[in-house]
Amino acid sequence: MGTTVKNNFPVTGMNCASCAVSVESMLKSQPGVISASVNFAASGVWVEYNPEITNPKTFREVIQSIGYDLIFDEKEANQQEEIKQHKSVILKRKTIFAALLTLPVVVIGMFLMDLPLANWIMLALSTPVVFWFGKSFFINAFKQLKHGKTNMDTLVALSTGIAYFFSLFNTIFPHFLMFGDSHPPVYFEASAVIIVFILLGRLLEERAKANTSSAIKKLMGLQPDTVTLLDENGSEITQSVSTVQIGNKLRVKPGERVPVDGIVTDGTSFVDESSITGEPLPVEKLSGNLVFAGTINQKGSFVMQARKVGSETLLARIIRMVQEAQGSKPPVQKLVDKVASVFVPVVIVLSIISFSAWMIFGGQNSLPQALLTMVSVLIIACPCALGLATPTAIMVGIGRGAELGILIKDADGLELAHRIDTLVLDKTGTITEGKPDVTDWLWKTENPATLKSILLSIEAQSEHPLSDAITGALQNEAVQSTSVENFESITGRGVVASIQNSRYAVGNELLMNESGIQITDKDQQIANALQEQAKTVLFFGGENHILAIIAITDPIKTSSPEAIERIKRSGIEIHMLTGDNEHTAQSVARQTGISIYKAGLLPEDKAAYIKNLQQQGKVVAMVGDGINDSHAMAQSDVSIAMGNGSDIAMDVAKMTIVSSRLGAISSAIELSKQTIRTIKQNLFWAFIYNIIGIPVAAGLLYPFTGFMLNPMIAGAAMAMSSVSVVSNSLRLKFKKLDINR
Question: Given 272, 410, 412, 426, which residue is catalytic?
Answer without folding.
Answer: 426
